[in-house]
Amino acid sequence: MKYDAIVIGAGPGGYVAGIRLGQFKRKVLVVEKKYIGGVCLNVGCIPTKALIHSAHLLSKIKNAKRTMGLKINDDISYDIETLRKWKDKAVNKLTKGVEFLWKSNGVEWIKGFAKILNENSVEVIKEDGESKIFETENIIIATGSYPAIIPGFEPDGKYIWTSDDAVSLPFIPSKLIILGAGAIGLEFAYIYKNLGSDVEVYELMPQILPGIDKEMADELEKILKKEGIKIYTNAKAKELIKENGKIKMKVEVQNKEQIAEGNVLLLAVGRKPYTAGLNLENINVEIDNRGFIKVDKKRRTNIKNIFAIGDVAGMPLLAHKASREGIVAAEVISGVENEYSPLAVPAVVYTIPELLTVGFSEEEAIQRNLKIKIGKFPFSANGKAVASDEIYGFVKIIVNEENDEIVGIHILGPEASSMAGEASLAVEKRIKAEDLGKCIHPHPTLSEAIMEAAENVHKRAIHIVNK
After folding, report:
1. Structure letter (DSSP) for residue 127
2. What is the reported pLDDT for 107?
3. What angle do CA 133, 138, 139 make, to 5 degrees?
């Protein structure tokens, strides 16, 4: 039972690597310990977006009744069981799609825990304890990550949740405390606020979404606060007490201690690479001081025929980054010259409005000693946004003044994620702001805001007063 490659993990890195290997007619086995699609497809990207879509619809209907004169006679509410089924239906459809694609490309898979015995042997232990050893020419580690835990704040599934618990909608707490204002924390804040929870978010760093362009993060914080989500930055959790069906969290905010009370605490303080049980220490695969597997541009580890992709192989922890790395590793194994070396990886926070960021933030560009020009355009001046009553946010384009090349695009606004392709292409190919401004965009569309922001770099935007 010898394979050209064994892929350990079936998330967006692993299952994609399996498909690409199959396309090259390689004999491939995917080993997955829990579920096809990994965290992203089952308890991450897809189900959270299904819930955000539902929560946004609920909010839109309520606002449309008030602002557009739409007559809705019944009270607007939801059935949590049907909502769960809707979310699960989306997940099941996509996991079955992956299985179909595997089968169509000759990819085999087995459920079990993988242990790498050496560079050419993998032991798979099934849930019933049965063990099998498989021989292979290559190994791809795609085991992903898991929620980070703070000592003293260990999840119990009842009072203290991880994102895995929150996405299953066990119930809608009257008061939800969220620790961490990264993408995961803010997305669940939006979901649960619109489903009826009173939500408070506490972030250790001075701004929400640490590392994101500060102007964009600050504007999103204002919008979320306006929607009724309470947000505290420079907030350090000190102690947690569970009593009488509630939680009390001692937290130091701006150097002043206070008590946050609620029904549930959601931990959203980041994720850690999953390497447990792989036996990496005994086969001498190198790991960095944060626990990530070290890889080169071809995604090879220090052992030539062992590769690592996705969350387990370093930042950023994004599904599309994992998928691209999976394609690179699969093609290298198949004899195709390829490497992973993007100029920028886009990232989206799926709150409403959405926040897209690709390339340098303003702060990053300045730190790199670039002389920059900035173009902006607000959605309040965009025809499609006004007609849709979604006018919050703006587009921000950062340009290297020396050559007019775009080095960063940040979009806070409706359907920002749908404009990620254009933004990524502009940054990756270092398109000039003048050229992007000359590219005709259809009217009325939200994407016109990108064109106008590019024109604003040179103070030539049409639908605003250029400053």
Report:
1. T
2. 97
3. 70
Contact 433, 412 (CB under 8 A): no
Categorize the per-residue pLDDT at 72 as very low, low, confident or very high, splitting at 50, 70 and 90.
confident
Q: Rounded CA gap, 408 and 89, in Å?
A: 37
pLDDT at 245: 83
Bridge partners (DSSP) of residue 406 are 399
The phi, psi pair for 20, rounded to 5°, reads -65, -40
- Helix (H/G/I), strand (E/B), else coil: 459: coil
- Name residues whose C-beta falls within 8 Å of residue 87's C-beta, 6 or more positions apart in sequence: 47, 50, 51, 54, 167, 169
CB 387 within 8 Å of CB 444: yes
93: left (phi over 0), alpha (psi -120 to 50) or beta: alpha
At 306, give phi and psi (nearest 5°).
Answer: -110, 125
Q: Quick one: average pLDDT of 90-96?
A: 94
Cβ atoms within 10 Å, residue 298: 18
* Mean pLDDT (whole number) for 182-197: 96
Q: Report the range out of 56-60, 241-245, 396-400 with the highest average pLDDT.
A: 396-400
| pLDDT tier for residue 77 given thresholds of 50, 70 and 90 | confident
Residues in the chain: 467
* Helices of type H across 168-279: 183-194, 214-226
- Is position 443 annotated as part of the catalytic site? yes
As a whole number of angstroms, the distance between CA 50 and CA 399 comes to 35
Predicted local distance difference test score (pLDDT) of residue 241: 92
Q: Of 410, 443, 458, 463, which is the active-site residue?
A: 443
Structure tokens at 453: 């922001």
CA nearest neighbour of 388 among 357, 419, 437, 352: 352
Angle of CA points 198, 202, 208, to nearest 5°: 110
